[in-house]
Amino acid sequence: MNAPTNHQILIHNGKPAFAVIPYAEYLKLVERTDGRPDEEVTLPHEVVKMSTLGGMSLIRAWREHLGLTQEEVARRMGITQSAYAKIEGGKTQPRMTTCKRLAAAMGVEWEQLME
Q1: I need a surface site. Which of 74, 88, 97, 111 has the fewest CB within 10 A?
Q2: For 38-73, what is each residue's pLDDT tens digit?
Q3: What is the pTM of this model?
Q4: Residue 40 burial (10 A CB sphere; 0-12, 13-18, 19+)
Q5: Are 20 and 10 in contact (CB under 8 A)?
């Protein structure tokens, strides 16, 4: 006797084309590493406008949109204002750990800071 299977493979033109799996398994596959479902990252229109039309880095656009000063964000990150200014300058993409600390300091998702 065969054990019941929860998976089904759909064949198209003689080749596997799709796999049908239980919804609970699908949700586990698409979860992000932080446990939240994988969602599309969005940005406020004002942030996009400041970044693209205003020529600002995305980090600076977020900071100004949130009404924060460089000093405030730097204090929240535990770094100096001059160190923060280098991050905001936008000449290089900050490391992932820095990006996550920055996002936490601003109260946004780290993915929203990635250009």
Answers
A1: 97
A2: 567 789 999 999 999 988 999 999 999 999 999 999
A3: 0.65
A4: exposed
A5: yes
